[in-house]
Every structure is written in structure tokens, then in C-alpha cells.
């Protein structure tokens, strides 16, 4: 798949006037920012926060999940307003550049946090993760502008697949450095900060391809000068939610996402903590585990991207939720590193595919003239999920006296609930409602395959 080459005029995957180099630029943002989640949220800093900064205190896992939850709450309350602001002024790309700089700088600042500096670590993770989440929502809003409806799953899969490759690259560089540092007798308090600087540098450097190749295709709205800002977040959220209620399938999908993405958030933010604290992985073993998980996720995102356009987004997403349930059960029962590797492999395949399918479905159900705004609301659902999942995991772990097996098994309930809510989603009805809101023609059979 040569994303960087130009398509023929009749390319069935992309909208008229969209070139593959632009799609490559868009996908490169996933490549750029994935190192943040892989190194900071999943593989390195999460476990370092619990074991190194907080000294393995009983409340450490809960404190980590609480910090993430605060950042997701901020995004949940502000993203609809920011999305509306970007839509009105055709400024998605400009805003994306601003939040990218914010995440890169705040990630680099985390390198200054040492053992015992719990408060500074919490502040740093809240700030950096907020910027990251804003950027993730904004880049998703470009997808419907680039891909035809019948190919949205495939193009979304390109982004997720390239993203996991980027995550592996960043983690691979960090792993090589960590192995060298350990061989030199350098402690974690000294080598972890370097991995954060590596992550920040690669994020900033790779994102330059996005800002070079990706175009701002939206046009400013006549009311672009209307006052919009953080003060209007609650009012904007209320208006957007009221509009979304006229799209019942978008609402059912958001409810489904709140459940299953809550479980995915647990895997992303707590996998390293579980591997080291419960199964007994060493830091370098955890990094290898997360590297393999990202490899499986890249394959899953690409394969499911093509599969969902053939068999339907709904069926593709539902199959991954079954895989997630199996993952939780295996992880809870695992007593050896070998058995936990099976859980990680299944989780990797399901992670990329479930996130790709959800993003594509949201694009199909969003009115074409309100893409950033509806993706802002979609971001609210994802951030609510990211609050519910990890925070409940941390609370259950604390209440169970540190027993994380009970917490991971309880996470399976979120995926079961998501699977039940997915049944209510009607792809044809949801796509028709989105197009009708924009005064466009009804969808074809390919657009509405369930």
C-alpha cells in the first residue's frame, strides 16, 4: 500500500480532489502521536509513576487513573466548543498545530519529574494528555473529508495501522536505550526521563509531515465571528447534544463507545502496571510486551479496515468486542508470563480494529457540515469512557486490597454492555439521517452496509 503515491482520477477510496499524499499526511499524525500513548500512558511512564514516583503505594494505581480521568474530563467539557470553533472558522489544521506543540512541550517537561514528585507528575500528565486528546479528536474530523463513505473503514485503518507502527518505532528506540542504560547501571530515575524526551522529539518531528501535506478543506461559516470560547463549552455541548439526539444511531453508537472504549482505556493505561505488579514482568520485558501488542494492533487495524468495508462496520466491531471479553478472562486467570502473552496478543489485534471501526462509524453518522462538532461530541463519549474504565479499575483495585485480577475481570462487563448496545445501531438509518441533515442524496447500498 503506497500511501504516498497519487491516485488515479477514479480512485474509489478517496473523495474527488483528494490525493494519496494528503491521506499519507493525515495518517502520519497517527504515526506521530502514537508514541505518546505507547511510552507515556502504556509502557514506561505509567509503571514508573506507580513504582518509582509513588513508591508502590496502595493508592498509586488509583492516583494514576484519577490523573488521567481529570484530563479526559477537561477534554469532554471543552472539545465540543473547540470543534464548533474549528468548524466555523475552517481552522481544524491551525488548532491541531497548536495542541500538538502543547503536547510535545508538556511531554518533554515530564522528564524533569523525579521520585516522590507525585503532584508534579499528576499535573504534567493532566496537561500533556489533555493536549494529546484534543489533537486526537481534531485529526479524526478530517477523515470524512478525505475518504468516500464506502471506504472510510479502510482509510481509517491506514491511520490506525501507521499509528501503531509509529508507536513501535518510538518504543523500539526507547527500549534500545533502556537496555543500554541498564547495562551501564543507570537507574530508572535517570533513563525514564530520556525516553520522554525521545517521545516528544519524534512526536514533533513526524507531525511536520501532517502540516505539510494535509489541507484545510472546510470553508468558514458566515457566523464565524460569533463569540466562541471555553466559556461557551457547556452551552455548545448542550446545543450539539440536542442536534445529535435527532440522529439516534449516532447516539446508540456513542453509548456503545462509552462502554467498550472504557475497557480499551483500561488496556492502554494499565497494561504495563498489571504486567509488572501482578504477573511479574521486568521493565524491559514490559516494553517488549507492549511492542508486540502494538505490532498486533497494527495488523488488526489494517486488516479490519479492509474487512469492515466488506462485511460491514457493525459486524467487524462486534467481533472485536467478543475478542476483548476473551482477553479480560485470560488476563484475570493468567499466572505465568506465557499465558499473559496470549491475552496481550488478542488485545493487540482487537485494539486497533475496534478503534478503527468506531471512528469510521462515527464519520458515517456525522452530518457533513458539522464534522468537527460531531467528532467533538464523539470525543466526549471517548473521554467519558476513559474516565469510567480506568477510574473504576483503580477504585476496584483499591477496594479489593490491591487485587487487580478482580478489576481486570470486571472490565469484561464493559465490553459485554458495549456488545448489547451495538445491536441497537442501524447503519442504513444512521447514514441516511446524516446525509439528510446536510441536504444530500440518500446513501447507496455500499454506504450503509451493516
Helices and strands in order:
Blueprint (H helix, E strand, L loop, with lengths): L19 H24 L1 H9 L6 H30 L2 H18 L8 H23 L2 H4 L5 H32 L4 H26 L19 H12 L3 H32 L3 H29 L1 H21 L3 H29 L5 H29 L4 H19 L4 H11 L13
Strand % is under 5%
Tally of DSSP helical segments? 16
Main beta sheet, described? none
**Radius of gyration based on Cα positions:** 21 Å
* CATH topology descriptor: Growth Hormone, Chain: A
Question: What's the CATH C level?
Answer: Mainly Alpha
Report the helical percentage. Answer: over 70%
Q: On the 0-100 scale, what is the average pLDDT?
A: 83
Taken in chain order, the helices and strands follow as HHHHHHHHHHHHHHHH
CATH H-level homologous superfamily name: MFS general substrate transporter like domains
How does this model look, in words?
The chain is mostly helical. The chain has a single domain (20-217, 229-448), classed as MFS general substrate transporter like domains (Growth Hormone, Chain: A, Up-down Bundle). The protein is built from 16 helices and no strands. It has helices at residues 20-43, 45-53, 60-89, 92-109, 118-140, 143-146, 152-183, 188-213, 233-244, 248-279, 283-311, 313-333, 337-365, 371-399, 404-422, 427-437. The longest helix is centred in the middle third of the chain and has 32 residues, at 152-183. It is globular, with a radius of gyration of 21 Å.
Amino acid at each position: 500500500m503506497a500511501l504516498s503515491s497519487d491516485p488515479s482520477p477514479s480512485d474509489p477510496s478517496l473523495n474527488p480532489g483528494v490525493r494519496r499524499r494528503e491521506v499519507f499526511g493525515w495518517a502520519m499524525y497517527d504515526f506521530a502521536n502514537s508514541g505518546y500513548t505507547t511510552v507515556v500512558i502504556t509502557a514506561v511512564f505509567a509503571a514508573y509513576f506507580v513504582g518509582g514516583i509513588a513508591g508502590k503505594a496502595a493508592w498509586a494505581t488509583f492516583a494514576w487513573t484519577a490523573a488521567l480521568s481529570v484530563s479526559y474530563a477537561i477534554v469532554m467539557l471543552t472539545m465540543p466548543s473547540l470543534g464548533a470553533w474549528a468548524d466555523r472558522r475552517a481552522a481544524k489544521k491551525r488548532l491541531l498545530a497548536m495542541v500538538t506543540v502543547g503536547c510535545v512541550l508538556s511531554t518533554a517537561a515530564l522528564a524533569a519529574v523525579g521520585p516522590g514528585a507525585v503532584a508534579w507528575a499528576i499535573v504534567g500528565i493532566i496537561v500533556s494528555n489533555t493536549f494529546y486528546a484534543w489533537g486526537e479528536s481534531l485529526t479524526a474530523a478530517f477523515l470524512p473529508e478525505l475518504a468516500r463513505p464506502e471506504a472510510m473503514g479502510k482509510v481509517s485503518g491506514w491511520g490506525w495501522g501507521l499509528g501503531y507502527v509509529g508507536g513501535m518505532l518510538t518504543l523500539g528506540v526507547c527500549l534500545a536505550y533502556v537496555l543500554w542504560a541498564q547495562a551501564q547501571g543507570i537507574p530508572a530515575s535517570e533513563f525514564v526521563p530520556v525516553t520522554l524526551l525521545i517521545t516528544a522529539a519524534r512526536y514533533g518531528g513526524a507531525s511536520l509531515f501532517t502540516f505539510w501535506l494535509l489541507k484545510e478543506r472546510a470553508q468558514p461559516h458566515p457566523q464565524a465571528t460569533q463569540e466562541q470560547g471555553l466559556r461557551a463549552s457547556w452551552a455548545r455541548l448542550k446545543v450539539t447534544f440536542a442536534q445529535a439526539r435527532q440522529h439516534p444511531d449516532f447516539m446508540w453508537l456513542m453509548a456503545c463507545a462509552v462502554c467498550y472504549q472504557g475497557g480499551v482505556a483500561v488496556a492502554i493505561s494499565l497494561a504495563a502496571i498489571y504486567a509488572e505488579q501482578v504477573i511479574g514482568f521486568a521493565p524491559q520485558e514490559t516494553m517488549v510486551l507492549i511492542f508486540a501488542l502494538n505490532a498486533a494492533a497494527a495488523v488488526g487495524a489494517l486488516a479490519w479496515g479492509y474487512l469492515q468495508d466488506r462485511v460491514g462496520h457493525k459486524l467487524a466491531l462486534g467481533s472485536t468486542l467478543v475478542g476483548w471479553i476473551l482477553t479480560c478472562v485470560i488476563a484475570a486467570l493468567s499466572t505465568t508470563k506465557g499465558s499473559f502473552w496470549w491475552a496481550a496478543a488478542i488485545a493487540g489485534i482487537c485494539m486497533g480494529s475496534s478503534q478503527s471501526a468506531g471512528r469510521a462509524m462515527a464519520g458515517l453518522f456525522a452530518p457533513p457540515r458539522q464534522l468537527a462538532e460531531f467528532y467533538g461530541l464523539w470525543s466526549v463519549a471517548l473521554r467519558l469512557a476513559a474516565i469510567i474504565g480506568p477510574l473504576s479499575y483503580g477504585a476496584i483495585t483499591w477496594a479489593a486490597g490491591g487485587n487487580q485480577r478482580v478489576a481486570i475481570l470486571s472490565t469484561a462487563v464493559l465490553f459485554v454492555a458495549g456488545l448489547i448496545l451495538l445491536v441497537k445501531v442501524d447503519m442504513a438509518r444512521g447514514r441516511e439521517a446524516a446525509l439528510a441533515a446536510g441536504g444530500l442524496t440518500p446513501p447507496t447500498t455500499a454506504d450503509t452496509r451493516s
